[in-house]
Amino acid sequence: MQLIIDIGNTNIVFGINQEGTWKNVWRIRKDKQKTADEYEVIFRSLFESVKVCQSSIMKVVLSSVVPSLNDDFKELIDRFLGLQVLLVGPDMYSRLPIKILNPYQIGTDLVANATAAYTKFEKPCMVVDFGTALTFLTLSGTGEILGVAIAPGLGTAVRSLAGDTAQLPYVQLAKPPSVLGRNTVHAIQSGVVIGYSGLVDRMIEQTELELQEKLHVVATGGLSGIFAGLVSRITHIEENLTLDGLKIIGDLF
């Protein structure tokens, strides 16, 4: 078994993979104030809840866009599992099946997305990641990362509304019953969810226009499921795409 960890700006997503199958995947809130001891309590509790034996974990792969947490997680894994962490970084990229023009200017989560998408589909592809940031990563049919576009994520937009206005609350994001919001919750859901659907459509359209070819569009990230049926060009929703990519990278080392 392998433990694959993706530390993002909002959540920490980690899963146990056995022979190519995700046995368990968890998503917890990132908290830079937590110590390695506190994260260890969480990991132990989750492992015990699904009866996973620590000694069955043979490899740990870590991607992080929060460098301040890297040492805490190395300490946690050493103490909890007695293993060294394989920390994904630019020094590995030359051995990947994809081509990266600026290895020190791209997040390891995006590299993992690109690795998984190219391995799965081997065709011109766009990965739309609905995370803290909404990212659009475009790959050529030969696995070259052609470019990335970044916009504020949906959760970021909702938190900004709630934090910067006196009467708008923080709401859970979901597909609204109508574009015509008849209460505050539905009004925010309409503006953010349906509005962002148009943003995604436009980014796909403009990218294809510039490249003069159709793209295979894959959505990932915790909020990707909301857009099923709202963005017709999304071909696949792969919620664990980043973990898949990290697993593929880990298998090369």
Write the layout of secondary structure elements.
Blueprint (H helix, E strand, L loop, with lengths): L1 E6 L3 E8 L2 E9 L6 H14 L9 E6 L5 H12 L3 E3 L20 H14 L3 E6 L2 E7 L5 E8 L1 H11 L19 H28 L4 E5 L13 E4 L3 H11 L2
Parallel strand pairs: 1-4, 4-5, 6-9, 9-10
Antiparallel strand pairs: 1-2, 2-3, 6-7, 7-8
Q: Give the tally of β-strands.
A: 10
- Total of helices: 6
Largest sheet: 5 strands, mixed
Distance between the termini: 15 Å
Return the string of H and E elements: EEEHEHEHEEEHHEEH
| Number of individual domains | 2
Helix content: 25-40%
> What CATH architecture of the largest domain do you see?
2-Layer Sandwich
CATH class of the largest domain: Alpha Beta
In oligomeric terms, what are we looking at? single chain
Structural class designation = alpha/beta
Residue-averaged pLDDT: 93
Radius of gyration: 19 Å
* Sheet with most strands: strand arrangement: 3-2-1-4-5
CATH topology of the largest domain: Nucleotidyltransferase, domain 5
Q: Outline, from the CA principal axes?
A: globular
Unreliable stretches (pLDDT < 50, length at least 5) are none
- Percent strand equals 15-25%
User: What is the name of the CATH superfamily of the largest domain?
Assistant: ATPase, nucleotide binding domain
